[in-house]
């Protein structure tokens, strides 16, 4: 009886994850919508070029995407796909899956911080379900040097919607129980105290940029990188390592505003994301640079 | 393979389904194979180590039992102990002693000591299976136990996967006979096993892993520099984390064993309801505390050779018990705090013997005295946990220094609420267990009520398990 009960609870959880979570969670709803749009980018004949911007919360909070889309609207069908807490490998395999599923953007814009470029990680179970193709799971395990248990977890998360989204489900429920829970986020975000120099970052970044560029290239898309404006100037010259690596691999990289160039009051409390005023300022600087870069990469095609 | 991962559920299901279709001997072969797969899942290189120590102890024990020559018996015992503790010392403490040595050399002005070049990986569970092997060889030496006739049986006793990595440390006279005799399927035992697994997952994934978020934030400095609220939140959170984590592990281990027809000893009995430190050690990690009592404290002389030696033995036992947990001075201090506390308690009992305790039917202490004692002991245990959790003595002292600083923010209140949400359920479970005295959750209750409790735990695990994969704390010991 207990075994049957446990199986029933597990089935109910999977069912709820498949049919309820995407509807009740605002973030999940946004992710699913953006994913659907990203999957079909480039498949219509709207007469415009297609640009897909991907990234994490830095893209979500630091860039006013509505303004970017409006500014590019004459020539470009711009779409965005954001998943929070993601890194290079999330997007390498995420883009691979999107291409595999039929997405055909002309340009892919990736916005990650220098640290996120070189960190060998993915967003665990969530990425395994929402970003990574089943066929790529073993490659991910190799890239991330995962042990057998972690690999098995990825496989389960890839198969089960519940396992993939369980962290979101928990956060959603806890958020309902304790509406002010978000304030604890400052405590739980791990700040890596290590700083990197350009020389340390460049070899890894060059290899990763080349790999991502080869992927986009194989589907006829051009790659553009955007570096966010970070408050923390202690992060050495890591950003320079990314720019150098991109230049070596002949990939366009934009740094609309150097790190440390925005005042503290343009950031949120934790000093990582820009606040709405900061995001508006950053977007104003980004748009012309992005327009120029898009014309240039397509012209070079 | 961690107990709280899907791969373990798949592994356990396959093993249980195959196991009950086989006869007794093939069952043992299957379990031995499964246990080695389970162990090798981390790193197959460690299999050689456990296999080697198993073979050495099996043949040493047989040779000890075959001879009446005292010197030869002692020699064989010594060989076995040297090999067992040699492996443990080399793999667990080598890095620690090298680092301490290097620090001492640096203090004398020698720099750039090449210790980093000699790092040794710690095989999982080595402290647990070594203690089990030592108990076996000592029991055979003392003629309290007949040695195993079959290498497979003995190897299975050492490596049976539910207890292999983090105990409970099984006594040879409890587990070995179970390995050596056919097990029969008992639906009641199976049901209790499932309930234990669910209880263990609840304790680990819901209680411990959520409390860990706060404990990690406080100890890592993400809550800001230590002050009174941060120290209290971090320490309480760690107290519930380690209890949920380890008692959860023990429950899953005992539950998994029960699905296979084995019975493991109870490892935790509501430790935070202890009214003295001595009481605490009768409730916390019982398989280790009884091992230390029987194979260390009593052989050292126990309380037989006068008060002074008793205090020395208590302190030595707890210091070594601390060092058993890990190769770090913080564990030694943790053991020292408990040793000193136990010694003080003993001294206090001598100075103020309880009048009630001398009567034939002592009256139970009042509600107020009981709870006052529980609160004091809980906080003493918490003080020791700070050293257990900190990475270094300096970090522990800095953290403790925060007790003198007062600061407050709304986030602390929120953190305390979060902690209450995840610690009060475990406290309530303990109060229920304490009152009923059951070995299994609601053991004597109506079966449908127990099913409902099991399903509720499953639902909690499903919905509130913390986000990240946290290894069980005791896996590293």
SSE sequence of chain A, one letter per element: HHHEHHEHEHHHHHHHEHEH
Mean pLDDT of chain B, as a whole number? 88
> What percent of the residues of chain A sit in helical stretches (DSSP H or I)?
55-70%
Low-confidence stretches of chain B: none
Mean pLDDT of chain A: 87
Question: How many strand segments of chain A?
Answer: 5
Order of helices and strands of chain B: HHHHHHHHHHHHHHHHHHH
Global Rg of chain A: 20 Å
Main beta sheet of chain B: none
Fraction of residues in β-strands of chain A: 5-15%
What structural class should be given to the helix and strand makeup of chain A?
alpha/beta
> What is the first-to-last residue Cα distance of chain B?
16 Å
Please tell me how large the radius of gyration of chain B is: 23 Å
Which two chains touch over the largest interface?
A-B, 38 and 41 residues
Tell me the β content of chain B.
Answer: under 5%
Tally of contiguous helical segments of chain A: 15
Q: What structural class is derived from the secondary structure elements of chain B?
A: mainly alpha
Percent of residues in helices of chain B comes to over 70%
Keywords:
heterodimer, A: 301 residues, alpha/beta, five-stranded parallel sheet, 5 strands, B: 477 residues, mainly alpha, 19 helices
Structural summary, described in words:
The complex is a heterodimer of chains A (about 300) and B (about 475). Chain A is α/β, with parallel strands linked by helices and about 300 residues long. Chain A has 15 helices and 5 strands. Chain A has a 5-stranded parallel β-sheet with strand order 2-1-3-4-5, sandwiched between helices. The longest helix of chain A is centred in the C-terminal third of the chain and has 24 residues. Chain A is globular, with a radius of gyration of 20 Å. The relative contact order of chain A is 0.13. The model of chain A has no long low-confidence stretch (mean pLDDT about 85). Chain B is an all-alpha fold and about 475 residues long. Chain B starts with 5 loop residues before the first helix and ends in a 13-residue tail after the last helix. Chains A and B meet through helix 1, helix 10, helix 11 and helix 12 of A and helix 1, helix 9, helix 18 and helix 19 of B.
